[in-house]
Choline O-acetyltransferase (Oncorhynchus tshawytscha), 640 residues
Amino acid sequence: MPIVEREPPKGRRESYVLPKVPVPPLKQTLDMYLTSIKHLVKEEQYQKTKSIVEKFGEPGGTGELLQEKLLEKSINTHNWVYDYWLDDMYLNQRLALPVNSNPAMVFPKQDFRDHKDSLKFAAHLITGVLEYKKHIDTRALPVDFSRGQLAGTPLCMKQYYRLFNTYRLPGLKRDTLVIHETGSTEQEHIIVACKNQFFVMDLVVKEKTLKEMDILSQLEKMVKMAENTEERQPPFGLLTSDGRTEWAQTRDVLIKDSVNRESLAVIEKCLCVVCLDDPSGMEVGDTSRALLMLHGGGHEKMGANRWYDKPMQFVVGEDGVCGTVCEHSPFEGIVLVACTEYLMKFMTGSPSKIGRATSVSELPAPRRLLWKTTPHIQGLLKASAERLQRLVRDLDMDVHKFEVYGKEFIKKQKMSPDAYIQVSLQLAFYRCNGRLVSTYESASIRRFHEGRVDNIRSATPETLAFVKAMTDEKTSLSDSEKIKRLWDAINAQTNSTIAAITGMGIDNHLLGLREISQEIHMEMPEIFTDETYVASNQFILSTSQVPTTVEMFCCYGPVVPNGYGCCYNPQADHLLFSVTSFHGSTETSSAVFIKALDEGLVEMRDLCKTSNNFVETTPKYIYIYRNISLSIYSHLPCKH
Ligand code: COA
């Protein structure tokens, strides 16, 4: 049964019926899985995996049984993969949130004349957040429609309703995503962090909502209070930067005391956290701003002036370094972009109302959150600080603007910009490492009810043939052979994208088959303990397109110790890349990767230009997945 996505107030907005995430055919997934790994592993290992996969998929075998169970589950639930995916991607993960999980959005650098200026900015930003939240609470946000490939279908809006009312509670084995009812009166406050102190800003005082000048006056009082060293509390925010199990254990210690319990309860229910940062002392550039968003520079800088569990955390630095750092489990980067772009436009388009509005009332002094500490807790704080410092030292980040051309040039070649950029990332990786590796590219499945993402496995055999043509076989192949291979790579990538965004990706399906086997208490099928499956889920290259229409960019860390995180933002005339890796790995270097990427992008452009002279560049797509996708959407009552 299709599900009505949203029921807005009568006459306000249209509602759309979204299909459920489909369960792909078993054979299709198993074939695609084998194709996706064949060229990435040794022949002997491939043969072993092939026989395991064939056994799993044989008629009447384990695969068919699990597939049947998944199909049943898809009938009985709104979204069969949602919980499996959420647990696997986030809640079961034990690594610390900063760098490893929380992405950041870096706002344009602000030029504050003085400290007061930065507080005015923060007050204006908070006002924007409250405006945006009003749209959410009244369900007045317009429905998003897909762009790019298969443009024009309505997208699931559910993630927007998780922006401000969620909290990731640490657990010993698994975290919990706590969801408050939208518009709950328990949630009428924000938390302001300043000098590692946490303050409560009640947004409703004597039944009146604070106006911007009230917000500013509260912020000013908080800053004054934070400066009072006698009342200063220990930097408990650091604890949230720790590994999830460590933080859960510490939290169990903290809540034995009622003061800590109360402070935690207030933070866990807030709408968002606003971090007022002191100047970091670092030279302000794109890379340093991104670093400050991702980890705050550690405990010596702003790393403790954060509460990493809270999904929406805004940073306003006195030195103009501003942005958001987000707990990722409730929403994707694309929804974050929509929200932050609204805020940026609000900030520039609607003048600050400070000085024009009258105060709502005599405002009570802001509340500082208090913490009870013991020598044991002090020790835990020290350990958290050290672990964060290690992460800070280890992160190798490079934000790079490739200015030779942008997505308009790629479109002129009649190629998908996203596919082209993915191929260029593979070329860069191959140049640096002489091999391709399991790669993750997030593909939105918001075309489906409660859809989040699946994976586009970008290291295709066609791309391997192309990158070899550009490196190992560079001199022996003609340009026409190289361009043919480029087209094959682009077509393969485009087809994988279409498969993934229409719910035919293989990663969610394999995850579902694995997890349902555990639900029915089956011994873990060999296909999931096989070294190829394990390795193919270690995404050495973790990539994501996060495009923006205002000047800002997204970044995140690698997902494995020897990997790269690569977030890119294609613009008309340039491409922005945020590349991360760990210094601790001898296999990676963000600067070397960027250099290889730059070179490859120039070579690809030259190849396209040369080929324009002798090759018919009309794309010869083999839309093998088009039929699948069209049948999924055929019943939709949407306008195209
Ligand atoms: N010739 C000319 N133009 C083409 C083309 C071709 N062959 N193929 C695509 N284009 C155009 C598109 O029409 C589109 O135009 P627009 O800029 O006017 O909208 C543009 O190029 C971009 O299309 P493309 O590069 O193919 O990518 P896409 O926009 O379809 O994006 C994904 C592909 C996978 C990134 C997207 O589907 C997706 O899933 N995005 C979400 C990723 C995500 O979740 N990120 C956050 C994770 S936290």
